[in-house]
Amino acid sequence: MEPGELEELVVSTIQETQVKLGESGGAESLYLPLSSIDPDEDPAAIRGLLDRFEEEARPRLGDVVCDVLEGRVRITVPEEGGRYVAGLPVSPVLRLMVDSVMDGSSVDDLKGKLAEGFPGHVWRDVDGDGFEHIVFFEDGTDPSVYCIGTECCRLVYHRFSRRDYEAFGFGPLRSAPWTA
Fold first, then answer.
1. Would residue 180 count as lying in a domain?
2. Average pLDDT in the chain
3. Do both 61 and 102 map to the same domain?
4. What is 59-128 written as a DSSP string?
5. 79 and 105 in one domain?
6. What range does the domain containing 66 cover?
7. What domain count does the chain have?
8. pTM of this prediction?
9. How many CB atoms lie within 10 A of CB 113?
10. For residues 149 and 129, what is the distance between their CA atoms, to the nearest angstrom?
11. 134 exposure class (CB count in 10 Å sphere: 0-12, 13-18, 19+)
């Protein structure tokens, strides 16, 4: 992972929180598994990346603080960073996912909305660990992999980077036939 990729991940995670809950008005801490930063979980490589990230993100996110903890990394973005993120455009896919969960849409409703608004999406029915479908975008519309399912008859999703999705052992995204 490079500092720019980590910044994109941090920004999109804060955006997701802001779309769901509104702007917090304070610092926000995010926790990532070490393997999300470096698949080998090498402490020196992780610390080096985090130091570069803090420096490169400072003009936009402010004085970000990154701590390596047991098995994970904590990234604390100050209030000014949250305000910066609040001013950025949100991925229309992320907004659709959050809105679909909040308005009680069904899986079929979501599938229809994706087909209507995002012709470049790939929908796959899977037998995953707690989810039944994955959605991703080969055309670059959105970099995330969305794992879709239901809990207590309600639509839920979990959003992962492609790297994390594949690292969880669900397999490469291009390994099977897909349906749009």
1. no
2. 89
3. no
4. HHH-S-EEEEETTEEEEEE-HHHHHHHHTSPPPHHHHHHHHHHHTT--HHHHHHHHHHH-TTEEEEE---
5. no
6. 3-86
7. 2
8. 0.84
9. 15
10. 10
11. buried
